[in-house]
Design goal:
Layout lengths: L16 H5 L26 H20 L8 H19 L15
């Protein structure tokens, strides 16, 4: 007669929230294989230099319009450029593609 381990016959127990948050190791690794946790501070999302650049750009966008005189309106021909760009994008959105050249993975019969 074969003897089976009792672990397969026992029902699985519910995991508590504390057990779910524990980091799991891969099978076959021991605690000695994992490096000790580092005590250095994690890297910031933005470096300090970039934060300074962001603050300078923000300050210039806030204060320069208050200091500089108002500019004259742009030429009327320059105002047509965004409208033309929008028209080209709308036309590209509705123009059908050549379906035969864009088929992937088909074999000619």
């Amino acid at each position: 007669m074969e003897r089976r381990s009792g672990a397969s016959n026992r029902p699985k127990r519910m995991q508590t929230a504390a057990e779910e948050q524990k980091p799991r190791r891969r099978p076959g690794t021991s605690r000695r294989d994992t490096p000790p946790p580092s005590t250095t501070t994690p890297a910031a999302y933005f470096p300090a230099e970039l934060v300074v650049v962001f603050l300078c750009v923000t300050a210039s966008l806030v204060f320069l319009p208050l200091v500089l005189p108002p500019l004259p309106p742009p030429p009327s021909l320059l105002l047509v450029v965004p409208v033309c760009l929008l028209a080209v994008l709308v036309a590209m959105a509705f123009v059908p593609l050549d379906a035969h050249s864009n088929v992937v993975g088909s074999s000619p019969l």
